[in-house]
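Q: I'm writing up a methods section and want to include an example of the input and output format. Could you take the sequence below and give the corresponding predicted C-alpha cells, formatted cleanly so I can copy it straight into the document?
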Amino acid sequence: LVSSYNAAVDELEKHRGPNAGALAGQGLVLTVWESLRSVVQYAGGTGEITSLADLGLTFDQEGRMSFDTAAFQGAAGNFDELVTFLGSAGGGGFLDAATGILDSLENDTDGILTTAANSINASIIAEGKRISETEERIENLRRTLTEQMAAADALIAMLEQQANYINTMFEAMRISSGTYR
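A: Here is the clean output for your methods example:
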C-alpha cells in the first residue's frame, strides 16, 4: 500500500505546478489526488484501531506515506479489532470505503477516469477531423494556386510571343521602308 500510494502521488505531482506534464490544469488530477487522500484518511471502527495511522501508516510533510512496522505489530496483536476496522469490500470498514472510492474513479461505465478518457478520446478524434479538414483545404488551395500560376505562365508566354511578333513586324517595316541603318 505504501509503495503504491507513494508512486501514485509521485505521478500526480508530475502534472502539477510550473513544470506540469500533459494533464496540467486538468481537474482530473485534483479529483484523483483527493480520492487517494480520502482512502488513506479513512476513519472508522469503535475500538483501538480507527485509522490507518493506528496500523503504522503515517505521512510526512510532502504527503508521502511511510510504514511503522512496530506500530503495525502492536495493532495486529488485537486481531478482532483489526478485522473489524478492515471489514470487507462489500461489508463495511476500510476495505468497503476504499473500494467505493476507487470504483468511483475507475468504474468501466461512469468512473471519473473512464469519463475523462472518453472525453479526451473524443477531443482527439475531433481535433484529428479538424486537422484533416484543414489539410484538405490547404491541398485545394495549393492545387488552385498551381493552376492559376500555370495559366499565368501560359499567358505571359503568349504575350511574349505577340511582343516578339510585333517587334519583328516593325523591324521588317523599317527595313522595307528604307529607314534601316
